[in-house]
Amino acid sequence: MSNRTHPPLRPASAGRAGGRSAQSPPPSAAAAPRRRARRGPRGERLAPYVLVAPAILIIVALRLWPLGLGVNFSFTGDGERNGAPVGFDNYADLFGDPLFRTALRNVGLLVLLLPIAVAIPGLLATFIYLRVPGHRFFRSVYFFPAVLSPVIVGAIFNLLLAFDGPLNALLAKVGLGPVDWLGDPGIAMFAVVGVHIWATFGMALVVFLAGFATLDGALLDAARVDGASLGQVIWHVIVPGLSRTIQFVFVTTMIGMLTSMFGLLYVMTSGGPEGSTYLPEYYIWIQQGQFNRPALASAASTVLFMIMLVVGLLQLSLLRRAVKES
Fold first, then answer.
1. Is residue 236 part of a domain?
2. How many domains does the chain have?
3. Alpha-carbon span 309 to 318, nearest angstrom
């Protein structure tokens, strides 16, 4: 009888070390959850595009497609050459027209005055938020001009700024001579822009107040504890905290100044005196409505669009840099 011991018998169903047990699911059943897991992130990535697709289609159909048609129409002729391709002839006529060059110079003036148009509602919103003396008055009346029609605003200021109007009468009492606010080519554009800022700053102020609602009050309290002045609080706390709001107001205010002053111009100066208050939108209306030159008006519209695009991008880049430095 041999003394050799035999290893214990293992069940027949047991495999090698690390092998699959008898209860493990088949390969196809184990791979199904993994396929669903791989499918899940892809669906999540596609969901935002599916949700924004209707809005993109509306923008393409109602904005970009008409814009492309307008740009294409600007390369066709007017009058006897109606619909015929003329290349860049319309653009050559534009830049050769003294009135259009005046309109472009006025666009440059608006860009220079844009920081003032943004600073006024921004400071008023700051005063209301910080509850400085007089904030209740501004809170009560700031939006009133925004509900008035540009025609009504223009008519009111035509009376106030007339050569024999109440403003010049007030200046005469303090020893200053009368000013021809709407008849002097060097002053008329500033007068119209000032009226436009007065009539529209209420909308920008509403946006600033909404931005202040997201500002961290603890930062203001910390600045006060550190003894910061009002100017330091505005520059080092409020401006960085409202950087996105300021960028939005800059862009929307610029678009409003370039595309929403037609009513004031038509009522107050009609482009005069001597064409000094022409803006591209008023020039477009003159070419289309009075001279029946729609292709030239389309070329002017294309130039206006490019100006707004370039100026808007430059403003955003400068504002981002200024916020980083502050």
1. yes
2. 2
3. 14
In a domain, 233, yes or no: yes
Cis peptide before 273 (omega within 30 of 0): yes
Contact 120, 233 (CB under 8 A): no
Cβ atoms of 205 and 141 closer than 8 Å: no
**Bridge partners for 82 per DSSP:** 77
Is 274 domain-assigned?
A: yes
Instruction: From 276, 304, 269, select the one nearest 288 (Cα to Cα).
Output: 304
Range of the domain at 66: 40-73
**Model confidence at 25, in pLDDT bands (50, 70, 90)?**
low
Do 138 and 46 sit in the same domain of this protein? no
Contacts of 1 (CB under 8 A, 6+ apart): none
Distance CA 172, CA 185 (A): 22
Summarised one tens digit per residue, pLDDT across range 127-174 is: 888 888 877 887 778 888 888 899 999 999 999 999 999 999 999 998
Residue 82 phi, psi dihedral angles, 5° rounding: -60, 120
Please identify which residue in the block is written with the tokens 């030159």.
Answer: 293
DSSP string, 76-134: BB-GGGBTSB-TTHHHHHHHH-HHHHHHHHHHHHHHHHHHHHHHHHHHHHHHHHHT-TT
**Which helix (H) or strand (E) segment is 139 a member of?**
helix 135-141
pLDDT in tens, 208-222: 999 998 888 888 888
Angle at 286 between CA 76 and CA 203, to 5 degrees: 110
* Nearest-angstrom CA–CA distance, 273 and 99: 12
